[in-house]
Amino acid sequence: MTCTHESFSGSVEVGRIIDKSPIEFVAEVTIHCDECKLPFTFDENHFAVSADRLRLRYKLKPATTVASNGKLR
Ligand SMILES: [Zn+2]
Questions:
Q1: CB atoms < 10 A from the CB of 18, how many?
Q2: Higher pLDDT residue, 67 or 13?
Q3: Which of 11, 36, 61, 72 is positioned for an S-S bond with 3, CB 3.0–4.6 A?
Q4: b/e map of 24-43 (b: 16 or more CB within 10 Å)?
Q5: Given pLDDT bands bounded at 50, 70 and 90, which one contains residue 54?
Q6: Taking the domains of the chain in order of start, what are their residue ranges?
Q7: Which pLDDT score, from 0 to 100, does residue 71 have?
Q8: Among candidates 52, 58, 65, which has minimal Cα distance to 10?
């Protein structure tokens, strides 16, 4: 039976780039389906930042293919 991807888990890691002045921060987000564990990928052409810049919205899709470099697309 094909998973319908109805529940998700993810993680957010925040890094500090200390060789920049002032120090910069980066966020790394990963998301996967709780049921089938398939990772989800981000669509780099469809994202938005809220007006107050506190929330990032990214279009997601289940990873379905493996590129020649072995990474999921
Ligand atoms: Zn799933």
A1: 8
A2: 13
A3: 36
A4: eeeeeeebbbeeeeeebbee
A5: very high
A6: 8-62
A7: 66
A8: 58
| CB distance 25 to 13 below 8 Å | no
DSSP label at residue 21:
S
* Cα 19 to averaged position of ligand 1 atoms, centre (Å): 40
Does position 51 have pLDDT exceeding 80, yes or no? yes
Distance, in Å, from the CA atom of 10 to the CA atom of 39, rounded to the nearest integer, reads 9
Using the mean position of ligand 1's atoms as its centre, give its distance from the Cα of residue 11 in Å. 17
Mapping DSSP to helix (H, G, I), strand (E, B) and coil, where does residue 13 land? Answer: strand
Q: What is the pLDDT of residue 1?
A: 75
Distance 32 CA to ligand 1 centre (A): 8
